[in-house]
Design goal:
single chain; 80 residues; alpha+beta; Translation Initiation Factor IF3; four-stranded mixed beta sheet; 4 strands
């Protein structure tokens, strides 16, 4: 499922409860090589806010955020 116009892998944590969603996203981001990206699907505004804070605190860059129905999609890139 390509959501933001390229072939980035997708991780859907919209139905996960915190902190499980944070752990799953951190695990997948840690597996990325420098320069690779991951599309993360999250639920409502509260989950989006918590996820964005966590992603930035871990040193990753959020390149894009797009609304997709009731969910949000974050394009996250691992820096060099």
């Amino acid at each position: 499922m390509n959501l933001l116009a390229d072939s980035s892998p997708v991780l859907d944590v919209a139905c996960e409860i915190c902190p499980v969603s944070l752990f799953k996203v951190n695990d997948r981001l840690n597996c990325l090589s420098a320069g690779e990206s991951l599309d993360v699907i999250v639920g409502g505004d509260d989950q989006l806010r918590k996820m964005a804070i966590n992603i930035k605190a871990e040193g990753y860059r959020i390149e894009a955020v797009r609304r997709h129905g009731a969910h949000h999609i974050l394009r996250v890139r691992k820096e060099q």
